[in-house]
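ASSEMBLY PREDICTION REQUEST
Request ID: AP-0331
Submitted by: J.K., bench scientist
Number of chains: two
Total residues: 520
Priority: normal
Notes: Please return the full assembly, not individual chains.
Input sequences:
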Amino acid sequence: MRMNRNYLSEKANELAKKYGYLPYIIERYLLLFGERETLSLLEANERGLNPVIRCNTLRADPSDLYNSLSARGVRLRVSKWVDYAFEVLNAPFSLASTPEYLLGHFYIHRGPATLLPPIVLMPEPGDVVIDMAAAPGGKTSHLAQIMKNKGVIIAIDIDKRRMKSLRSNLSRLGIENVIAIRMDARRVYELGLKANKILLDAPCSGEGLIPIDKSRKKSRTLEDIKYCSKLQEELLRSAIKCLEEGGEIVYSTCSIAPEENEFVIDKMLKEFPLKVVRIDLDGDPGFTEAFGMKLDKSLRHARRLYPHKHLTEGFFICKLRLEERIRVR
Amino acid sequence: MQIEIGGKDTRPIVFRLLNEGEMEFLKKWFKRTFNCDLVKNILEGSKKQLLVGEGERKEIFLVPKNVFSVFKQISSVRMPFFLGLFLGELTKGDFKLSLEGAYVVAKKCKKKWIIVSDKGEILFLYGRDIMRGSIIKWDPSIRKGDRVVIMNRGGEALGVGRVVKGLKKAKNTDIVVKNLIDRGWYLRKGG
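STATUS: Completed
Returned structure:
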């Protein structure tokens, strides 16, 4: 999509002023999506997003949870993504103060897209799974739920305070198949483990979270995106080294910046014998070209989610399979 | 590298199997407190293991055996922050049952329980003691001074209390069980 440089800059400034963004963000949106879709995205970001609760099926039945919270005056709607999650349309009080929450019947997700990485990874009860950025435990507990509290999850995070949240959440939800390790996940291969499934919901600029956190319109710079991109590459490289031959990694971020998503995957596809696995999920295909960069064609099998199209936070998700054994150095 | 667990620990946590003395103590504690062979049942009846996380405190974790196998593989490289299900804390001459420990006791043990009404459930979860009027059913073997698991009408453990007054003769407004720990902790302190 070509756009006159002056017009692009003027339009970006105009929209940035109107919607309260840093101009560089809008300029990038205009380049990636064009003017009409950028406007739709900006409007959707203004509308915000309802939180989602995921029923912990290890402890509760989704219909019982729906009924008990409805009886307390909470308005819920079954999520379009999974039948055991509910969009919270209205809650007259904090859901975290309900007996159902305290008894571990559900987990509160800030938006629906965070439900997706464990579903796409779809571990089996006997699997050994590594969750590379685990705290505060939304995805780890979802993995454990899918695995019926069987198998083993190695949950890695570096932040001590968030590790305490992880412990509290997993405990509340009755999860017992997790080994939580506080370490820099870039060194996870030092554990000497081989997993058949790995989840890397990578730390990111959080650009996709603007519908939930408006401060992100101005709090992240291009330097932050570059920093995150480098970190993401290192994390993914480390994850790949822990994968068994034929094993799968789900890589996701709550960013829509190609540098944090397709660019990272494209680099790994060049370095390792990986294949992008098709994801059966509503969403736009991943970019195979962005900001003038030609990328691996198979990236179209990745999925991009947007507030204006899919009613989620901005999100990227890609599934990779290791085709051959690799030597770890 | 120093790994910490909980709020105030400064010593690195080392996870290991329980020694003989700790195992015997726990067996006796569950038998005495809940009239229940919980430890024996865990170790013999299911594929689980008990581990101690020892630092400033001695925390007991219930760990599935396949999780334990992976723990053995990696523990020489890195000790976990935690693993399995936190069952409780060994203190000098006592054992402090955790909230999830209470949940396990409620499912596995048939003694020393109290069931409270919906209103009593909410009040207990907000940290309140239990009035006689909130109790709808109880284990008849309960005596003053006993530690009891507090359950809701669905049989789910809400926490642990200590009986401070005989239930049979108490008035509806009398406080009969003191709240020792309740699941409202997850909201107040859990993070």
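REVIEWER COMMENTS: Confidence is low (pLDDT under 50) at residues 1-9 of chain B.
SIGN-OFF: pending second reviewer
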